[in-house]
Amino acid sequence: MSEAPVFGACLCGTVRFRVELPTLFCGHCHCTQCQRNHGAAYVTWFGVDRNQVEVTEGGNHLTRFDSSDHGTRSFCHRCGTSLFCESTNHADHIDIPLANMESEIDLKPQMHFFFDSHREWVSHEDGLPRLGGETGAEPIKD
User: Fold this and answer.
1) Tens digits of per-residue pLDDT, 9-66?
2) Is the distance from CB of 105 to CB of 23 less than 8 angstroms?
3) Which of 117, 9, 100 is nearest to 46 (CA)?
4) Sign of CA dihedral 24, 28, 34, 39
5) What is the CATH number of the domain that holds 124?
6) Does the residue 132 lie in any domain?
7) Any alpha helices (H) in 16-119, and if so which ranges?
């Protein structure tokens, strides 16, 4: 059974994209790169196979920034909205900020990644698993 696509955009609407469901995961990332890139305590991402994403408008307005030795972040060079995160650590999929979507996806947030970098001034009493360590996805021992 095929699900209908969902659509997303940057703040100014110049870059628009469509995503075919299903998603691979949805979670809150607390890494310092996400905090600095988005100016927030954490960012909620979801991932899909690379071939499930299509930029439908404004692809020439995307700028790619090498944010680490293994990853890039793409953003609209007109308004600065962060749109995609790609990593050689998982080259087969692409991560997209959930807040950039115009409708709901098929998953709710399932976990916290890189939780050992979380900001103390934000409450996280949602009962979701907290992962951390070197990969950001290892169980945190209490």
Assistant:
1) 999 999 999 999 999 999 999 988 888 888 999 999 999 999 999 999 999 999 988 7
2) yes
3) 100
4) positive
5) 2.170.150.70
6) yes
7) 32-38
Peptide bond into 109 cis (omega under 30): no
Domain containing 98 equals 6-139
Distance CA 82, CA 64 (A): 10
Tens of pLDDT, residues 94-125 = 999 999 999 999 999 999 998 999 999 999 89
How far is the C-alpha of 80 from the C-alpha of 88, rounded, in Å?
23
Structural domain contains residue 1 = no
Q: What confidence score (pLDDT) does residue 38 get?
A: 87
What does the block give as tokens for 76?
């609209």
DSSP β-ladder status, 25-29 and 112-113: parallel
For residue 18, the one-letter residue type is R
- The domain total for the chain is 1
Nearest 5°: phi and psi at 51?
A: -75, 0
User: Measured between alpha carbons, how far is 11 from 99 in angstroms, rounded to an integer?
Assistant: 10
- Is-contact 54 62, C-beta < 8 A? no
